[in-house]
Amino acid sequence: MQTDFTLGIDIGGTNIAFGLVNNNGEIVYEGNLKTSEVRNPALLPELIEEKLKDHHFNNIGIGAPSSNTFSGMIENAPNLKWGVNIPIVEYFENYFKLPTKLTNDANAAAVGEKLFGAAKDFSEFVVITLGTGLGAGIFINDKVFDGKFGTAGEFGHVMVEKEGRPCGCGRKGCLETYCSATGMVKSIALLSSPNKDTSPLLTLTCPTPQDIFKAAENGDQFAEEIVEFTAEKLGYWLANFACFSNPEAFVLFGGIAKNGENFRQRVDNYTQKNILNLYQGKVKVLSSELHHKNAAILGAAAYAKY
Ligand SMILES: [Zn+2]
Prior knowledge:
This protein is an alpha/beta fold. It has helices at 44-52, 88-96, 105-116, 181-190, 209-217, 221-245, 261-274, 295-305, and strands at residues 6-11, 15-21, 27-34, 59-64, 67-68, 73-75, 85-86, 100-104, 125-130, 134-140, 143-144, 249-253, 284-287. It has a five-stranded mixed beta sheet.
């Protein structure tokens, strides 16, 4: 029996993950590259092909930050060091001679949650990706919302503090400088607390959000304050976002969200606490149900055929 495989690629600020996905949403082959090792994105198709060996596929779906679905370009991605406009679809179509679709990594995640995960029963929902940056994949009327120019969902660059933390986009106080993996780590240096001096976090040379969650679990008060600060800020802004978009649910996705029920619950509490009465109890805050799979690869592949 002939099986129809799609190559799904998730380009992130730290890793590029890819895999072959069959029609049942199963990843049959997976690989990855360090983003920092890919100096020239024009060579990415070749680098991926080397790892795929003799596997065959019929189409390609790419999820990447700051992507323009319409132009097929990655435009000014602050977390990728590849320059201004990267014609990534052109690179892949020229190399593999196969139809290629590009979308925001958060849109790819949203399609993945819709087809295989937590958003199966929703037609209006927002997936919030909490990785190197913060992105949003917005579903309206059962479809991904691309916006007029193909770049909707840059929720991470909503400016939440005047003269706040500097952001990779060149402005200050963007939400992702607080609520993302990078933002949480920045909080170690930037938050002040009487509990800070004794925190084990200060002894780590390259702390990660996982270190922060772990220290909080082990009773470190400063780590606990960072987790709470992150959840509070995120919940507050989800409550605001709900006011003008009225979604059924937010689905938390990616690195930070993987830290489970406790973090989700805190974000949910702050969302419900700040939300307009009209929406009270009507907007769910859920965790991704795709953590056990590589959801971003699945999503990118699903988007290629969606
Ligand atoms: Zn920004």
